[in-house]
Description:
Elements: H1 2-21, E1 32-36, E2 45-51, E3 65-70, E4 79-83, E5 92-98, E6 115-120
Antiparallel strand pairs: 1-3, 2-3, 4-6, 5-6
Amino acid sequence: xxxxxxxxxxxxxxxxxxxxxxxxxxxxxxxxxxxxxxxxxxxxxxxxxxxxxxxxxxxxxxxxxxxxxxxxxxxxxxxxxxxxxxxxxxxxxxxxxxxxxxxxxxxxxxxxxxxxxxxxxx
Length: 122
């Protein structure tokens, strides 16, 4: 019975890890999904917040999970807040920068600007 429980827990953990690391499939404009920090932010997305989750496999409490937002398809003139841990997609410009506690993506954080206000221009 112990072997079955251990196997079940390992499979559940693997399924949770896959759910966090899988690339977003057919996300609608503005959708937010979560992934482990080891997964590159896809083209057309920006990071919008960072945090910690034991499901992403590290033993420290450094930021290892991020929420990403789909910007492709949002109308011209849309303004979004994004972490400075990724570049803004083509057609978006930075209109401001500031510090946000939800955008701390380093284990040695500072109070320097780490977030942007972005505007869709084309």
